[in-house]
Structures are given as C-alpha cells and as structure tokens.
Amino acid sequence: MNPRRRFLSTGLSTLALAAGPQAYAAGGDWPEASPDSQGIDTAALQAVFDGAQDKTSFALNGVAVVRNGFLVGERVYGYPTSSLFVINSVTKSVVSMLVGIALGQGKIGSVDQTVGELLPEVAAKAPGAAVNRITLAQILTQTSGLEEVDAISLSQTPDLIARVQAQAVHRADRPTWAYSDTAISLLAPILAQATGVSLEDYARQVLFAPLGIERFSWDHGSDGSAMSWFGLKLSPRDLVKIAWVMAEGGRWHDAQVVPQSWVKESLQPRILPAWRVPPMAVDGYGYLWFTGTLNGHRAFWGWGFGSQFTLLVPSLRLAIATAATAPRGTATKQNVAVMGVVSEIVALAR
Predict the structure, then answer these.
(1) Which CATH number is 183's domain given?
(2) Among the listed ranges 20-34, 158-172, 190-204, 225-239, which one has the minimum average pLDDT value?
(3) pTM as predicted
(4) What order do you get walking across the sheet with 297-304 strand by strand?
(5) Which of 95, 166, 180, 323 has CA atoms 20 to 30 A from the CA of 240?
C-alpha cells in the first residue's frame, strides 16, 4: 500500500484519503487528495457516504467525488472498488462525446446532416423511410419524433436498421423533447460508417485510452454491435472521468480529448425535457446531456435508468459519479434519493 494513503474504514467500503495532492499516476488514473485539502470537510463527506445506502434504500452501489482534478472520495458498497457497473443511459452521453470527436476529426460533416446522408447505403434500401430525413442534431436532442421501441426489444432485434427504418416519425411543427432509444440506436452505425471501426473500438481508441480507462465492458445487441443507447459498464472512478473531462472543456491532463467547441455545444440547453429529479432544477437538454441548477450552481449530467449519474458543477470544479441498481418498479423515488445524496456532496464544496 502506498504509505501516503490511509483509509477511514476497512473492507470493501472505503473512503480513500491522501495526505495532500499527489502527482498524476501512470496510466491515467486519478491523483488523490484529502477532502480537506480541496475544500470539502472530510468528516462531513464520510457522514454522507455512511448514510447514503440507507437514504437510497440500498440501491446505491458506489460513488466517486473529484474536486479540482483530484479524487477526494470514493465509496463502493459490497463490491471491490474496481468493479464495473452498468451505467445504462449514461452510455448516450459517452456516445455524444464520440460524435463530437468524430466531428472534430472531420469524419462527420455537421450535426445538420441527415440519416440518409450519413448512412447512404442503408437509406438506399428504403428511400421512402421517414427516418432518412432526421438530422443528427435531432437525434442528439431527443427531438427526432421517431416512434419508440422498447430498449430491450431493440437489443434483441437481429436487423436493427431495418426495424428502425420501419418506425413512424411523429414530429410537431415546434420541436418537442421525446426520449427515444430507437433514434439513439442509429448513432452506432453512423459512427461506424464515419470512422471505419465499430463503436466500441472507436471509443477505446479516441476516448477510453486517452483517459486511462483500461477496464470497461459493453453489451452487444443481437446484431452483434455495441449498443449506443445503453450497455456500457464502468467503475465509478472511471465514470467520473467522463464528467470531469466535460468540466475541463474536453481536456484530460495536457491533451484535448474532446473538442472544446463540442463540449460547449453539448452542454448548451436546447430543449426542455419532460423529466424531473428534485432537488435538481432541470431546465434543459443539450446533446444527450441534461442541464439544470443544484444548490444554486449550474450543473450538467448524464442520467441512466436507476440513478446512474455522471455530473459536473463547473463553478465548483466538482464532478460526481454514482452507480446504482436499476429499480424494480418506478425509478422516480430512487432518482430523487440518489440525487439527494449528490446534492449533499455538492453542498459540502466550499
């Protein structure tokens, strides 16, 4: 064990502390620092972690907290710290970052391109399909109007593209936010067509490797491809990197991983979503990222079914990630409970 590190508790549920800021570790892992050294009361953070499972009815599996670029707190409940957890629809926010990278590389022309332009060979098989006229921007803002198919049914469809092409499009004159896994499923083939590699391989090359994310898992659908609407699994300490990179304008260490312009575009509120998660005041949706205000501070987050969050509060230089078990019934109560824990952590940042 590194002699500079100590732990407030033993076993699998630990809050890792350090005597002070440390240099970045090899391989892109987090430097660690004590909460106190970064303006967060150590005992208070410990108390939040200790009470979090009770407050979330034991749905919370893990949480990681980064302040000023340092990992100041990490707790995983009942699992090894390195465990991978499903992040459900936070997968969408990760895929949005990949779209931005592809745009920055010139592999995609613009968000105004249509599905027909981005997937010409596919579109030629069903030239009259309404989906061909949907733009990339409409997919990213959940305003495509594409008729929804249950996420599990999508994953079990052997010819996913043909099924999506057969879906109707219901788009009002005024754009309306309507969550659609069906529309997001198109991002995997769009990125594969643009980059020449699979979604999973592209993520590994241009995002995960630069961030030092060496361990991840990605579920594949019946068509054999990684799913762009859900299926990614990460550890909390790697999931929080996703938020932190966005908070840093796309930078990790000294490298520009995601174009700064895309980060700005992604976090700009473009449509009012229908979902709410108190105590967060939800006020917008960008490119597969939610926007709102928490404890008086602007916040942006990826949101998975069952309260998987990767959240950034730029004004506080704070990022938080949560891992949670998908609820058996409605997710509303669990979302509020987990966001309540997040709110408590944000309130500690001085």
Answers:
(1) 3.40.710.10
(2) 20-34
(3) 0.91
(4) 70-76, 60-67, 318-324, 308-313, 297-304, 290-294, 281-285
(5) 180
